Amino acid sequence: MDSAEKKRKLLLGGALIATLIAVVLVGGEDEETIINTVEPVQSAKSSVDKTKAQENNSEYLDISKLGQRKFNPSAGELFASTTWTPKQPPVSLEEQAAKAAQIAKSSPPPAPTAPPLPFKYAGKAISDNETWVFLAQSGENFIAKIGGKINDKYRLDSINDDAITMTYLPLNIKQTLTINNKIAGNFR
How many CB atoms sit inside 10 A of residue 135's CB? Predict the structure, then answer.
């Protein structure tokens, strides 16, 4: 340890010892002696005022004499947010209904669309002039031929070397699944 650190530790230790001694000396006194040493300040009030004050202290405080707190709307809200954009004038219900009707007339709702095809092409096989397609969907495998249904939601319409055409049955929308692999086999 260098000398500066020794001095610092001695000063801190001395301050600690002085604090402990002061606590022991002050802690030894009784509370009564401390309270008795503080004397009330004499005021210029007369004895009549003192007796009235004592009578008022003995009674309960009449809350009706305090009055009610009044709300001041100009005070604002305590947690209100501040924006610098100008406030929009209030819009009546008739104006809102007219605006909603105008928007409804100007833009028709979008036509429903079929979800993207959930299938992956796994391969195809040709047997007796019939082409069978192997499809996979999240761990399930399906085998289908033209006109066959898959999951009661899709129907297989046509099979080419490049794509498979299916119809989404709930909306009767045709969709195409592109074939990336040229995997074909013949059953004999």
Answer: 23
